[in-house]
Structures are given as structure tokens and as C-alpha cells.
Write a structure and sequence with these properties.
Maf protein, alpha+beta, single chain, 6 helices, five-stranded antiparallel beta sheet
Amino acid sequence: MLREAGIDHVIAPPSIDDAVLPERLGDPAGFTMAMALFKAAQVQPFRLDGWVLAADTMAHDGDALIGKPRDRAHARDMLSRWRGGAHDVWTGVALLQPSTGRRWIFADRARVTLGDLADAALDAYLDSGAWQGKAGAYNYADRVDAGWPLACDGDPCTVMGLPMQRLAPVLARLGAGGAPPC
């Protein structure tokens, strides 16, 4: 998404494996912002005055925060939970400049509706393994392209892990401008 927006960047993953975190109750905005900040704090910028951008995305079903599925059965449970209804997807963002201590931290929410997905389509998707490593067990853009009955109220980029409609103006103020791709 950053590349599509014309924003120069270097990828440097933090050492945390957030896939092992359990589902939990709580505030989705606060949790995703805290996780993004924790991730950003683990990465050093490539330039002395550089910025570190990190994000964390979780689904929220109204009761619990839902991260990445543990296995195929867990992915099936998540997707079955979404079928015929709506759920929220939250992405927390942390933008840090370690040399100055400057930072922006925010969370964005989008509401995703999954219509009546046929069992055969669900089984084929689960068999593909494409659900692995995906918050809520799916990649929004891939599933829309595959013809799944998905709709998004909010920034689709939030669902894909980086709320570009809110992030792009902040990056533009920092001199890393670009138009949001979503």
C-alpha cells in the first residue's frame, strides 16, 4: 500500500510473533494501538532522523478480539462466525521517530459484511491455506477479487492492515506524501 501511494520505505519486521496471542476481551482500539507501538519500538530506523511505522490489525466480533487463526479448524470457525453478518476490523498504527521522541498513534475501524458464502467456496479457500497469517482468517482484497460477497463500510485499507486514508495525510506532513491507494 505504501508503494502504491508513492511512499519510499524499507521493510524491517519486528521480532514479535503476534500470531500466538490468544483471543481476548477488551478495547480493540487500545489493544491494536498498544501492539503497533510495541512493534515500532522494536525496530531501529535506517536513517538517524528516520521514522518507524508499525501496525496491528485485529477483527472484533462484538465480544472478543480475534487475531490470526491457529489452524484450519480455527480459520473455519472464524469465517463461519462472519458469514451472514458483520464484524469490525481495527488497525492500530504507531509512527515513531526515535531520534526526537516524536510519535503519532491512532486506530481506525472498518465494518466488514460477509454475505452468504457457499460451503464449497469456504472449503476451497481453507484447503488453499491462504488464511494462514491473516487476522480474521482472510485477506480482504484477495477475497473480493475471488468474488466473495464482501462489503466494507470504512477504509478498505484498514481491513488490509494499514489505514491509508488517515495515514497518508500524516505522512504527507512529514514529507513522505502520496495518495492513498484505497
